[in-house]
Amino acid sequence: MIKNCCGYPLRTGTKFISLFNLVLSLIYIIFYTWERCINYGYPKPNSDQDHEKFLDDDFLDYVTLVFTSVGVTLAFANFGLKQATEKNETHKIYFWLLTSCFQVGTIFLIETEILIYHAERIKNLVLLILGFTATDALLIYQYLVVLSFYKDEKLVEETNYTRLSTNITNQMTDGEGEQSEADFHTIEL
Fold first, then answer.
1. In the prediction, which pLDDT does 99 show?
2. CA–CA dist 153, 97 (Å, integer)
3. What is the pTM of this model?
4. Residue pair 14/151 in contact by the 8 Å Cβ criterion
5. pLDDT score at 42
6. Do 172 and 179 contact (CB within 8 A), yes or no?
């Protein structure tokens, strides 16, 4: 796995990734809310002739709700990742890893759909492919950095637990291998 993130320790790199993605998630939420309110903000229909436009308006509301929900979920996952780096709470990394897998998978599907069905309408196909490749590489690198950080933190937790249990076992047993109740109450942690 990866030992550092661009020359910085994994903890620092993971904290940077969480802050960067948190800001992007907030921009994502604000953009889709603004997009719905400003660009699609036409008045509600008053007659039966505008029924199709009213359905379009409801559809756009649902699309905005879905995109905003995705943004909130990503912000929540990134906030949990930030807490994991600051408070040594490795269990909060699980949700980020899960949402990151779904994010990468969704982006791959969207890129594939664009390249297969809309390639003939794209003027600079090479630039688009380079952009997709750079985005995918960045997402996969982020995932590998966070996964490496998680594995390192789990190793530290397991080592600390093993050391603590060995110390307690050694303090609880006397020279004959039997437990002494008096020693049990004076265990040094």
1. 92
2. 15
3. 0.70
4. no
5. 53
6. yes
SS3 179: strand
* Torsion region of 34: left, alpha or beta (phi above 0 gives left; psi -120 to 50 gives alpha): alpha
Q: How far apart are CA 56 and CA 81, in angstroms?
A: 37
Count the Cβ atoms, other than its own, within 10 Å of residue 105. 10
Q: What is the pLDDT of residue 40?
A: 60
Task: For the beta carbon of residue 23, count every other beta carbon within 10 angstroms.
Answer: 12
Q: For residue 16, which of 94, 85, 71, 70 has the smallest C-alpha distance?
A: 85
List, in order, residues 6 or more apart from 32 with CB less than 8 Å away.
64, 67, 68, 71
Q: What is the CA radius of gyration of the chain?
A: 26
The whole-angstrom separation of Cα 156 and Cα 13 is 18
Mean pLDDT by 10 residues, the chain (189 residues): 82 90 90 75 52 60 82 91 87 90 89 83 84 92 91 81 77 56 54
Q: How many helices (H) and strands (E) does the chain have?
A: 5, 0
